[in-house]
């Protein structure tokens, strides 16, 4: 139980550092109308915040936790594939919109960092049963 509490504090500490830092680094880009490079840091901070909520559900590695993680990974695989297809279609169909490699990678990392969201959805669904 002490390890779960320590994990929660570690994730919360990371989130409280990363979200303001990413927001600060993205502000100037957003104000000038450019692609925000700090967006990935914000999404990783949000991911850490979600993991702080989920750590009591995931760190006692039992059958329930493995089932939740497996379900979430399946849904995330399809979400990432859909984002890749949408970004490629955006790049091919709209000639006036340019998506650089770094922007493409930043969007993919941001989508991948939201993985705990699906785990959280499945945890809440299972708790409401």
What layout of secondary structure does this protein have?
Elements: H1 2-31, H2 39-58, H3 63-93, H4 101-113, H5 115-127
Helix pairs in contact: 1-2, 2-4, 2-5, 3-4, 3-5
Structure overview:
The protein has one domain. About 85% of the residues lie in helices and about 0% in strands. The protein contains five helices and no strands. The model has no long low-confidence stretch (mean pLDDT about 85).
Number of strands: 0
Number of domains: 1
Report the β-strand fraction as a percent range: under 5%
What's the overall average pLDDT, rounded?
Answer: 83
From the N-terminal CA to the C-terminal CA, the straight-line distance is 25 Å
SSE run: HHHHH
Number of helices: 5
Task: Specify the biggest β-sheet.
Answer: none
Oligomer: single chain
Overall 3D shape = flat
- Helix and strand content put the structural class at mainly alpha
- Radius of gyration (CA) equals 17 Å
Helix content: over 70%
Low-confidence stretches: none
Organism: Kurthia sibirica
Transmembrane segments: 9-27, 39-60, 72-90, 102-124
Keywords: Membrane, Transmembrane, Transmembrane helix
Protein name: Permease
């Amino acid at each position: 139980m002490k390890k779960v509490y320590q994990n929660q504090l570690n994730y919360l500490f990371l989130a409280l550092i990363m979200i303001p830092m990413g927001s600060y680094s993205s502000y100037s880009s957003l104000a000038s109308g450019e692609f925000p490079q700090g967006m990935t840091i914000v999404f990783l901070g949000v991911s850490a915040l979600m993991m702080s909520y989920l750590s009591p559900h995931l760190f006692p590695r039992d059958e329930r936790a493995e089932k939740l993680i497996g379900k979430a990974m399946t849904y995330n695989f399809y979400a990432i594939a859909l984002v890749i297809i949408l970004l490629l279609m955006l790049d091919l169909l709209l000639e006036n919109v340019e998506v650089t490699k770094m922007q493409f990678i930043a969007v993919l990392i941001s989508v991948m960092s939201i993985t705990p969201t699906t785990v959280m959805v499945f945890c809440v669904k299972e708790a409401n049963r």
